[in-house]
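Quality-control log, excerpt.
Job 1 of 2 completed; input and output follow.
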Amino acid sequence: MTSKEIHNMINAQINAELWSAYLYLSMSLCAESIGHNGISTWLYVQSCEEVDHSRILQRYLLAQGQEVKFSSIDDVPTHWSTPLDIMQSALKQERNITKCIHDIMQKAQAEYDYATSNLMSWFINEQSEEENTCQKIIQQYENASNTPCAIMQIDRDLGSRKYHPLQFKFPET
């Protein structure tokens, strides 16, 4: 069983992941409204993954005999001017999430909570991948230098992303 403080931190992270899902959904709709259907698809899939991340944390707390507590979700921004603006905001959010995950890991290690540390190791790897992906997309948009054909190609490439639910297995309890 996790400590009360770690339990509270994980509940806060569940809600942060759900807020991220709302943010990515808002970004997806904004991108679609300005004619960038490819990045809209990419962002929608990202929204689904954030819900999956929340679900992993929810199931972890349940497996630990802890209660999952949902909080109100604050409003999310609804407008960005360009796909580059969207991806810069996405990277900022991923960095915020990474910091929260690191804080949970640090607390778990201080308390010798190996189960939580193990779970947070998975999230740290996931966050590294997500930040790296956002940075690569930002670099593509920056390299495109507002060249319409290049931006269209980036959008087309991003639109090929498919949603694959995360397959995260917990040990039997």
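Job 2 of 2 completed; input and output follow.
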Amino acid sequence: MDIFIHVLSSRQWMDRNKRENEQEKEFQFLQEKVASKWKKRGKKFLLLTTGTVILAVIFGLIARYTFLVSEDWLMELLGLKEEERTQIEFPSNTPIVTPSNPPTPTPVPSPTPTPVVKPEQKEPVIVEQKVEATAKDYVKMMSDIRKIADQAAKSLVTVTAIESGVDWSDKEYETETSTSGVIIGENNIDILILTQLNEVRGATRITVTFLNQTTEALLWNYDTDYNLAILAVSLKDLNETTLETIKTAVLGESYLVTTGIPVLALGNPNGYTGSVELGMVTKKGLYTSVVDNRFEFFQMNIINYERSGGIIINFDGEIIGLISQTLKGESKVFTAIGISKLKPIIEQLANKTDRIYFGIIPEELPKEVLKEAELSYGIYVNDVMTDSPAFEAGIRRSDIISSINDTDMVSVGTFTSLLKEIKPEETVTVKVKRLVKQVYKEIEFSVTLMKKEH
């Protein structure tokens, strides 16, 4: 009996093992079948994904090519094509002193003996004619002057800066200030207007009033050192009457200005927009320095007002100066900055051209100081901006810059002209003379120039 039970138990154990083996084989088969199925699906998914990516790339390339070919036509068809802005230029005849064009003294002719010829004795002829001027003659003269002002006024506009905010009692408010602006050109898309930066900076809105139309304007570009701002008014916003009436101002040459010539001040010379003042140049040859430049200004016998602004024109109707309350140095009389050296700055602002930042306040040097430093040429560093490339390189106040990239610094004009030829991030070699223990020593610096940001 015990043997039978033992045999039966052994048989049961063998049957159980057999069943377990069969189940294990079946499980392995199912596992292999599922794995194979997922493997096939993975390959299929990978092939589909790869094919889709390849087709997307091909489609993208074809679409890009088609867009490039048809972009101009499509944009023109939809009326979305924007014309290319043309560059505005203000050619200047201002002479710039350079090593190849040094200042030349006026030649004094050598005396040559001239034969003495006795004139024939003739009876003197005396011509005498008296012309009596009347009030009508004065009125006629002033009328002619007024015509010059009226023609120039076609280039002038009224600029209104509107600033809105909330006061201490949570009430909304708007303040308006007005000044003058002058039309300096157009770039096929916008009319560009020059005005004083301090009058429009911080404004919420800016409007420009032409002779018979008021429209919105945008702050196109500006420079804090020169206190200049360029406003842009879209040509599409101006009606035909305005376009036919306005004209672009003519920028003349201020280096030709001489004392005693009559001038007209237009814009807001006495603080009121649209005002006109008549005067004459009383003094010239005065200078004021700003960052990386130096300007000439002249004075007139016109009363100086706190909020005066606008332009100075000669009797040919050409702008020869800008009225400025910030660029006149310490002068307390009516002052205008000469237009000749401002022209390149205005042109760069109008065209949004990259400008170079060196970072010094330059001054001319008398010959005695140059001789003491054993130099023929050089410009004086009156100050250095702490955030400037010049300061970072090691240039300091009272240094004398003798050359930049082996170009002799004959004058501040040479310095500013050279900066126009340099690109941002370009490194230049600057040689200076520095007074160390009462002895001038030459030091060389490498200055990496940067783009000027307003």
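Post-run check on job 2. Residues 1-8, 103-114 have pLDDT under 50 and may be disordered.
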